[in-house]
Queue: 3 jobs
Job 1
Amino acid sequence: MNFFTKTLLGLAACLFTLSTLHSANITIVESQSIHPLHKMDIQWQDIATNLGHNATVVPQSFLTDLNNLNNTDILVVSSGLIDIPAASQQVIIDFVAAGGNLYLQAEYLLDLPGNQTFSGLVNTLGGEFSWEGETSGNLDPMMISGELANNLNPVSSISYYWYGTHGVGSDNIKPFLQFDNKNWGFIYCPIEITAGKVITTSDQDWIRTLDNPALMENILSYLANYNAVDAAPAVTISMTTSSPCEDALTYTFVAEVENSPLSPYNLQWLINGQIVPNATASTFITDAIAEGDVVECRLQMDAECAAFETLSNPILIATVEPLEAPLLSIIADATDICENQEVQFTTDLSTGDALNFSFQWLLNGNSINGANNATFTTSGLNNNDIISCQLNYDNDCDNGLEMVSNNITINVLPTLTPAVTITADQTQICEGDMVTFTANGTDLGTNPVYQWQIDGQNVGDNAPFFTTNTLSAGQNINCNITIEQNLCTTTNEAFSNPLSIEVMPVFQPSINLAASATEICQGESITFTATGDFGSNPTFVWQVDGQTIGNNSNTFTTTTLTNGQQVSCTLNVNNTCATQNSVTTPAIDITVLDGMTPTLLVQASHTQFCYGEEVTFLASGSGHGTSPSYEWFIDGEPQGESLPIFTTSYLHNGQQVSCEVISSSACAMGNATASNIIEVEVTEIEVEVLELAYEHCGNSDGFIEIEAFGGQAPYTYEWMNGTTDSFIDGLAQGKVSVTVTDATGCTGLGQIEMNNLEAPEVSAIETVDAACAGDRGYAAIFLLDSVTTYNYEWTNAEGTVLSQAHQVDHLPVGTYQVVVSNQYGCSTTQEVIIEQTSDLNVTLNADTEINLGESLELDALVNTNEAVTYNWIANQDISCVDCANPTVTPTQSTVYQVEVTNELGCTAIADITVKVGKQRDLFIPNAFTPNNDGNNDTFTVFAGDNVRSIKSMRIFDRWGAELFSQINFQPNQETEGWNGNYRGRVMDTGVYVYAIEVEYIDGSVELHKGDVSLLGK
């Protein structure tokens, strides 16, 4: 019998595989940035290094980029207190999702960064977790369970677990730390197969104090021995029968596991979905099966915190069919080959019911020694050789069967070596000329492909010739030929000889003509110059009015031209590639001028007028040229006007106006031509002041009397206030104007400045202040007008007249007034203040701050070399009260004041504020080693000058028993500290609690509590 199977269903799942890692790359995020004594990162590094791993401590910024973790197998976030922003949390999540393993430190508060990062990681990668509460104090003993209790070292508990948080999670979160029926540390297995493992504990002091290094080793070993895999294990089953040719009812099924995990797994055979008792081996033999039954195998295994299960393909027991003979055919990757070409022959086999089959390849019907595989490769075939393959096989009922495949006949082709050369129909051309290249070759086959190139750049079509008119000098032409792949050539390409064509540039002759001038005077020399592109060996032919003149040169000079003649030049060239042989310039017209003498006439719009009236003068004449230059004169003085018209309103009677012109005509005779002179008659009216009196003290009592002359009487007057007489009064300070008109209507303007004779004007006041006390003051007033006689009156604040001179002395401190008046009764009043002054001044240091216990020297500086006395006022320690530089040592912020007195009794005061900082210069070690090696053998207190004494120091064990007590001793004395002994013996390595009272020099007492580790007896 023969049975066939049908695949009904396929399942896949994911699993982690366990493998031993000899060395892992471990990245540790630093912890000492939170506190210099938080050296969890160093503890992890030491443990990892001792285990043979590569461990590196990195800053927190390392978590900002996932690429920084490319070579990291295990990431250790060593502090639960460091800030882990959202971007860094995402880098941690991505690292675990990509298969990285993580130790994440949590801490004693629910909302600290380490705790929140663990919760967020679980919520992102699958599962549920929540922190439930916080507990303070030492959680002793913290029990260890699961694989972390024994995977490398046997460990059962942590004796120092200082504060912590507990939580609960889903099935893929396994607790391994227990205290008081709560869970304080966890192993998390993400749902995805590609993700890594995560371990967290909610206290870092057990790591900081190195309380249980064995558990730290177990954690690193556990993480180092787990790798995420890319595919889950799968199981596939196949079926045979014990005797298919007989009417047998015994069937054999074999299970094969793909991606087999290293951890243990279980197999269970199923028939129609029901478990077959005791059928758990990889081979399953049964006779309890019938047509239509479905056989499957289930693979199960348990991971640390996740279970895995998958089913095999199902096999359906179907109807018995007759045996099927095998079918064998062969194919070759080539049948037309070249000499010694390698050919591969491949079988195409439909096995049918064939069993134990094998192959034997045949050459021309003879067996080929060693050719027994499904493929056969050879390179030694000859023309018309025949290859076939014989199949030897058994089936369920017969043995020693054979069959032969189809035949393949080989055609061996001759070997060819292609070659090509190129030629050109001409080898010297002008730029732009057409040239044709032809390729001739041998052994090129039937369909060669031509590729023409110019300087390595492909051009042309697939043809044995190439025509172009774009070549330039120095370019190389070649042709590459590609031979068809099925030809037996020694190479598939043929490269021609390079061919270079001499390309001469096209020459475009050009000529331009310029003249040194186009307008000249008769007999003047003029030079013509030809420029352009002449090529080599040019000739020049010059023409005047079409008649050849001059020599073979690119310049032509003459003095014989007449008005209207035209000059041109013809260029003749001798160049093979020239576009034309002769070029003639356009003719240049020449103007020849005769000599001339310019004329100039000046005319005025009118010559008789009133002063201030506008008059215009116009210059005209001949021979001025196109751009003449004019200069106007009044009484021979130039006016700076250069136009032929001149207008002014400021001429006086009898003045003369004339003009000169400089012609722009090249042929003008002489330099400058003068005009006629025009003399003007101007009526001018002048005003003379006969009498004037200024205003006095702002009383508007000024007056003016005037007289007019010039022009023609009678005169009329008009003042600015409407007065029409030659006399005006009642004038105040300011400008006064009057208009005088004569009988002909000409006017004159008079302006007079009216001043105000004001009150006396002070130029300076001198004062001398009273020194310290008394009547040593002095004051004096000085006026701008030192000639005029003034009246003075000095009075004090009570109105008493003290002096009628310009100065007053013997003044005590106070305010005084002086009134100064002149002969017109105008007066001015000034106030003078006499102050009490002292030449004595004292300064101190700037306000400052010192630390408790420090001293400061005060420095009183006075501005005199005279003898002075000092008096310091202070209620804090001061070295002296009558010196200039006392030293102070305050225990609290204090104001120090000094008063300085000189021999005259004058005093000066200054003060300084000295603040006292409460910085405590105190250091209490966190560990000591009482092994009598002379280094760190005792536990004591170290302090600076601001500590007065240690009032008491008490040491307790973890259960509260007092082990040591000392009172009233000085800091920095190691002999006064605890040597680790209790009742005559050194205590065990561990963590102990201290309570220390410290008295500072300001009288305050502070209590310091903490723990200290006793290390290495």
Job 2
Amino acid sequence: MTENEHPKLLIEEWFPYKEIGIECQRERGMSSALPPINFLHVWWARRPLTACKSAIIASLLPIQFDRKIFRNKFLKISKDLEENYNLIQKEKLKKKGKKIGYSGERTFKLNLSDAEEENFKTEIQKFWNKEKIRLLDPMAGGGSIPFESIRLNLDTIASDLNPIASIINYATYYYPAKYGKNLVGKITKYSQMIRETLFEQVANFVPQNDGEINDAFIWARTIKCPNPECELEVPLSPNWELSRKEKIFAVLHSPSDLNQKICQFEIVENPSEDELVKIKGTINRGVGVCPRCNSTLPGDYIKNEAQAERMGHQLFAIVYKVFIDPKQKKIERRFRIPSKVDLDAIQKVDKLIKKKIIEWKEKGILPDENFPYGCDNRPIYYGTDKWYKFFNNRQLLANMTILEGIIKLKKELIKRNKLPLEEIRAIITYLQFALDKVIDYNCISSIWQGSYQRIIHLFNRHDFSFNWSYAEMDIIRKGFDWAISNVLKSYNGLVNLLGDSKSEITIKSSPAQNLNYIENSFIDVIIVDPPYYNNVMYAELSDFFYVWMKKSLGDLYPDLFTSTLTDKDNEAVANSSKFEGMGQSKKILAKQDYEAKMRDSFIEMHRVLQKHGVLTIMFTHKATDAWDTLAMSLMEAGFEITASWPVHTESRISLNIAKKNAVKSTIFLVCRKRLKKNQDVWWEDDVLPEIKKIVKEKARKFEKEGISGVDLFISSFGPALNEFSKYYPVKDIEGNEIRAEKALQVAREIVTEIVLKRILKGSINIDLISKYYIVAWEIYRARIIPFDEARNLAISIGINIDDLKSKKLLKRKSGDVEILSPSEREKIGAINIENPDDKGILINAVQIAMLAYQDGGQKEFERVVAKMRRDTDKSFRQYMEALYNILPEVKDLEEKKTLAQILVSTEEKIIPKGGKLDDYM
């Protein structure tokens, strides 16, 4: 090794990314069997523990380390993992195949044995020439990386700007490692005291019928009909489904007497087709309709009424359980409309709540901070301008009673002085986590999901989505007990996974741009999962919990709750809302801000990292902008990317076709400090051919291993950036420095070429527009594509996106484009079956033929195809077959269904990959 070389690490040469990806999918495959870290508290982006553990170990071991020991002993991957996986995937394709499982336990559950731990310790001591390895995660978030570091007995420093993340980190590993099972009995004891207070003060307002167990209360928002002759309080809901499987609905009846203003409901099971047609929702795309007088409730009218605090709430159904056998072992879920007793209880709460709000404000414990303007302003539009307004009156009463109980308990424990303050802090933290679960599931943004018959919490999505109807928990008999048991189950699981850790643990709350608590060259390895550009606005979402935590935990963590809300200014995300009205594109300013913050963060990481240390980053995003920004920040900070690996970290959950396709892979980027180079300047014409060569080789390998769609694009970004960073800075012929996006565009072009050759089985002569259409479906597998990505794909194919819009193949939709269906294109005059002229564009011919088949079957199809002179065009049939094969298997996809019918009924029969044509008949 010379002065200009780093000692090579295992992860720079080899990484079993495919098997690690399978284990990550196993880890995330069942929501009921996720690791305990996932159940402790909401966090919006946690990497799988398997991914974190493998990144840490492979970033510490030398290149010559035995790969079998790494795979079988350290990661504990079973020998037949890939074989089992392939068998399972084959059976899934059969729809009703045999159930096949894995022979080995999921790796995240398994700790190193004493002998393996000693072996690991010896190896890293030899390689790093020190006994203690110091690991830093400066953007710790939900704590997966430091948690795995502590399991490996590494001295661990975890930091995050967000105070909610910092408290989650204390609760995830610091307290479990320090107190073990000793806290369980105390948390149980004190939670029971709070439960008793809750029952005393709130039970009378939540009645329950004899022989029934309340499960959920289902509400609809209401707005007064604007017709002065009607003025009905209109319950707003897009549908009234209560149970999809059993076909149970709430049916709305509006009073015929104009003096009566309140609608009534009844529960209907298995309605006839005629009845089903009449069970209509009262709102669609933000516009309501009065069920009595049919007056329209415009969207602006509804918002104005809501902002004037005239949006109401109507309880229309109660979900309950009953025991249905003598031994009371079998429970059945049923539905009923609210009784007079139920409605009277609500009226009592409504009368009490104004007095309670004044009382809570005087005590300074009501979360009455303003909801701030940001990326998602829907709560403000619909009248939720303060945080406590996320709850109806009964929800607020129950949630605030729990909060008061926690605050009272904290004061009593401190006054008694029988427990150390840190232990009191731990106990109160876990009780607050239970309350956080309650408020997440017991607010006006939690919904009743009829398909699974359960309450879905607010943060099921990473935003503040507005819901017309919502669900309320019975906090007295179910909610609080469930939340406590959930926290305790998670805590016990974390204690078991951590084992007898000997790590030195440091938790900080600080921006990654300022690591002033760490000396120069103090850190050996940095593993980080940074914010993914504009994917999640962590600070904005965290405020929901921050305003509650501040009331109970503010004095226990005084450094974490110094501001009214969380810090948005120093957060490293591309938050365009911060740049409204600044005279320039807010999107460009947000990108520049993100890049500056990431560069400053990497500069600090460069400072604290020892000369031969390693920085391993986990990153994923569909947008080229995000990758370009990350890469430039890294290189400008003095890092070089030495290796990259695509790991399939997300579970295989199908997305609705109307939604944007999600990336399944996380790219691991291995970075080292840039050492002295032999050449100071590299030129674009020398570097780009090398990038093409590397990307072509890697992309073909990834494709053979089953990586496809948008994941194939981002998997190729790693090798492109790897090669580009070797030569940074790279200049064009005029001497201007080029950005990483140039390398990424090269990668796109290579992948596009590879994809086209595969899906079209070689070279069939087709126009650029038709090429774009089929590649867009293959890569993104969804109708909606981010605009910049759609434009970059067009450039890769050699066409302007404006041409695609002018041909009405795509339409602009806010920051996205939408691929139009054949029927949508027919409506706007892009294609016409009456006068079937495809204008020399193959996709036009295919879509006209689809519409003809839908309209008149095979006979009409053949007539239209012959008129377009496509009946003798071999590429027409090949294109249809290729398109059928790559279209996603998603319910109600018009193109997939019609192509299946055409290909079965016309002369040339095919057996497409990925499914049977009969599945779509």
Job 3
Amino acid sequence: MFNTKGKCSPHAFSFTILLILISIMLNTGYAQQYWQDGFPLFQYIEAWNYVQIDSLIKLQAQSTRYDAMETYPFILNGMDWKWPLNNPALGLPAAEDIDFRISQGYPFYIVADGTGHRVVEINPGATEPVIVWEFYSSNPASDNYLKYPVSCFTFEEALSRKYVITDKLTHRVLIVNRETKVIEWTYGDKTPGDGPNQLNYPSDAIAIPNSSRILICDQGNNRVLLVDRVDKSIVWEWGRSVSEGTLKVPVDIEYVAPLNSVLITDQKNHRVLLVNIVSNEITFEFGTGQPVTSNEGLNNPTDADWLSDSHIMICDSSNKRLIEIDPNKKIVWQFHRPLNGLIDADRMPDNRTVIVTDDEGTRNRPIRLGYANDSLVSKVHDLNHNVIFDSLYLNLNKQTDTTNVRIQIRSASQVEDLATEDWYGPTGKNDFYTQSVTAINPIHTGDLKFQFRVFLDTQDPLFTPRLNNLALSHHFYDADSTGQVTSTIISVPPSQIVTQWDSLTFQTIIPTNPTDRQNVHIELRVLDAVKNIDLIDPIAVSPLVEKHVVRLGENVNWKGKGVQAIRIKAKLFTSFSSLTPIIKNWRVDFSTMTSTPSKIAFVNSHYSPVKYYHTTIPISENDPNFQFIDLVRVKLQDTNLSQLQDNIRLTIRVRGGQDSATVNLVRQATGEFVNTIGMRAFISRFPDTNDNTFQISDRDYLEVTYRDPLDPDDMSTAQVLMIQNTQAKVAFVNRLKAPITEASLNDTVYIRLTNEKDQDFSPAQDTLFVEVFDNKTADNENLMLLETLDSLGTYSSGEFFSSPGIRLVSGATGFQTDGRIQTLPGDQIGARYDDNFTPDPVVTLLIRQIQDSVDVQISGLYEFLIAPNPFYNEHHDILKLRITSAIGALKLKKIEIFNIAGEKVREIAGETIFPAPLAENQPGYMDAWWDLSNESGNLVSSGTYWVKFSAEVTSSTDLTTQSISVFKKVLIIH
């Protein structure tokens, strides 16, 4: 025999067989083929243990994302200047208010130092501030003594610089000449009250430009006053009238000249409002009246300033924020970090802002806010592995035109080397990361320590760029785990056979750095895909070369001869977490020859495939029924063997039993293998396994399996159903399945088969066909019969019934395949059924003459005809009706049916029979107008019944209508 196609075993064959073999080789042909994986992508059915497969095979990268941010975001500090606490000459301020003036382009700050009992003006200077003016007296009895100054407002008048000072604890407002330090005007007699020239803990005061009036925030009296300096008269007051608006601890005021309005900070009402001096109306208000921590309100505001663009800057003290809102009450600017104890703020022309705040725990300290370019360096971050950096992710807040964030990275394997490393952007030392999801410079590959530095740039002191978060994605390879991958099954289609596995070739990508090459390792194995065993010793792949060739068939250890399907398995190792072994492509070359799949089937004596055999209980060859049982035959088609072997032995088994037999298939001239002498099978539950017959139960199967010895994947099977042959009984019946021997024209007759279990092929409803014929009219029709349910509700009854039946119609000549039988009275019609157990059982039926037609000549003014009458239930199906009027249109109103005792058994509405009137001389026909049931739906008994027709007739001559009633008698016989 042949172990592989095209290769001969040591057993000798005849010279003829060798010539046939050569012929097959020439006709089918050997071919060189290859399997290649890697273009356009690798395709595998198995992969596990940290393996990544795309266009390459390598270790699965352990991808991570490292959040490199510190505990706070990277942002410009914004503290442009602070009152120095280490300069004794300046003193320790406890500022309650700060104002500024610009002289010759330089700013000067005026500070109301509450607990220091003074007002000072300082030059902040480039390095250290200097006090350039001071109003102070240590004598409490002096008018110049300030007990607790809380506000100082500067203005020019008559070419002199003057200051409006609010001394809260002496309940007065005074105007001081800067040059002479003389008090030129006061309001308040140093006693709290709300009478003329009295105030109650005032908190702020300002001079109205180009007028003689002073605007005073009289906090203790919850009011705002406008006082004329000439006679100290109150020309306007607001805040204590319920109708106008009630103030609650006002702390700051500002005059808005373009609107002739007062901006009031109403602290305990948690609001800022704008009041028109002429109308006393509130024209703008921000705040809800309650403390609010969201952007919709305020919490204890301490100061509000009207800006040149109609925005309002607010010290939202308890919320620790300095904000700017627009006329739509939306926050359009906010200082980037909380400000504790925020009291006062003033925006300068250069967009810097001077404030009074409790910064760093120092109470009421003057500070200047203004963002400026700066750079910050992160702490050292440790990634725990030598990694390959992927992308940098940034979460930034910056303004397109005024701010920017630039980032660089440096890295090293050891922390002590980090300080000497250069900083890099994405492409080199002179560029920067500015966008999120930017590829990280590969210069950092293999490092595990890194730092980043952030350049924060701004062109406007009001705005700062903000780096909220910085994260790096990277990957590494687990040096403690082995990657393993198995290829798809490498085989040929069923039409071919592998005769030789020739070679395995593959490529690897080796590390660029020669010193790294010993850190990566690959081991390859070639496996029998069916048995999953090694076909060659494991192959250790050298990391020093890129192209590899393994000669499989020539290897002395090769065990793959005759194997039809293989797999390649690779194991990947690394000893350095930033390196991975990489396989670029696999290819297997092999030789093949053409093959064809086998096919096996159970067949009949003509060698045509069959789905079932008929058999019976054991009988002898002399039994006349022996000729009607089948013999078991098998046919095998396999061109791979057809020219190499003369016979094949196969085992046929009984699926549900223990019997089996071996058959010898002999090669025919056509190349097929068959057992020319069939084997007998009998219905029996007691097998004899040595008698070369099959003992089998009814409805059991015979099975046979064939496997191509040259192609293990080529397997074919067949099965056949064994059915005990039974003799069917055929009968003509009526629709109630009662046997009949006669029928009349226009009857419908039915066929019933019983005891036909050998045609019951499946648990579902089966069908068969019976031929109905009339030899005299030469008509025949094939009538389909359906299997009926048995008592258990399953289709195993062996009974078949034709429903619907077949109609008998008058005709001397048959029209075949019209679904009816053309016949004449006196003819005999027959039913022929082809059963292989008995030759063509035939039954006949006599056609008799019975008047059952409504097609008769009309005689009278109108006629109501019922047929057939009498009605025989055993061979009639339906009652027919014809109605005709010769004198006009007839409309049927109703039909009433009475039994012989005069009892009404059924009433039928006329419009359900004939919905429209019947025209004159135009008969109306209706079949099955009464189904012989009563009002309860039950079938009426045999007997005589009276049918009353009620109708209306409209004359065709004078159009008069008359009602008529007609009685007809009908006889029903069951």
